[in-house]
Amino acid sequence: MDEGLEQGIVPRLADLVGRVLTHAQATGGPVFRAMSPPHEPEGASPALLLVTRPGSLRHHRTDAHRAAWRAAALTAEGIHALPDGPERAAIEADTDRRDGPAYAVLTEAERWGLLAGLAALPNQRPPAHATGASGLGGVLLGRCGAVDGQAELRG
Question: What is the DSSP letter of 151?
Fold first, then answer.
């Protein structure tokens, strides 16, 4: 990893994600509880922490998504077969609502900083099929919007 990143933004991002991960312990479902916290070897570099912590948060979102489609009386097969449209959008919004409290530990400025920092990392975005359309950035983006070309942070 670039030494500048390792000394600058990566430790800050690892700290922010770590705070979210700790806060998420109160709201995580069964998969999150089984898979969290991630193994963090003593003396782990900030880069290693930044790679492993979001994976645990992904399980938090998985639990939120499962709860949202179950609340809509869907099965795993039903949500998989559900086409894009208002019903799917409502389930995604419910997923964001259920996943969002984990991020409440961060201030608005910290959420923006986390989003911008993650976006600034080289090769940080895996293919959409690997992570789905949401996840850590998705929750943060879900709390961001654009009105007349101006970005805003919601909630």
Answer: E
**Is the alpha carbon torsion for 62, 64, 67, 68 positive or negative?**
negative
pLDDT in tens, 70-82: 999 999 999 999 9
Q: Does the pLDDT at position 100 exceed 80?
A: yes
CA 35 to chain centre: 15
Q: List, in sequence order, every beta strand (DSSP E) within 26-81.
A: none
Q: Could you tell me the pTM of the whole model?
A: 0.72
Could you tell me the CA-to-CA distances from 144 to 44, 91, 95 in Å, in that order?
32, 18, 15
80/78 Cα distance (integer angstroms): 5
CA gap 16, 13 in Å, rounded: 5
